[in-house]
Here is the input.
Amino acid sequence: MKIDSENIINFLTKRIPELKYSLEKKNILNIEPNDSNGFGIKMIIDSTESTIFFGNSGHHIHCYESSENIEEYLNLIVNSLTGTGRIVAHISNGKEFKWEYQEMNENNDWITISEMGTFSWKFWKKRKTDKRNIQTNNYKQKTFANISCKPKINTY
Here is the structure.
């Protein structure tokens, strides 16, 4: 599949017909959460590399045109919109410093798929860490007999 806004929108709306989205400048796709507990998704689409941003968390994943299976990245978006994917923020001294994208496995356990964080320059200082700001979306996904929406993505 070629990475362009038309193909991406077609892929997503086939699976989530009531998807709320907007397109800026033909290459920035904004997907709105469907309720106040959700998070928005922004995808900046380029011919060689696209970037998926999850909410206001700072967490993002790069998707390259040369990736073996671009659909895996798009399925990650589908999972994050249908409640089987979520963002968990780690908070220290009132500030978010680490974010995890997690997906629910077959046993209903949350598994971390990717994580991102900031470096604390005051690493010697004792800090209180809290895991909260769990955000999920609840769009309803259309079911397809032979489509798996469980990505196997290695992020950095």
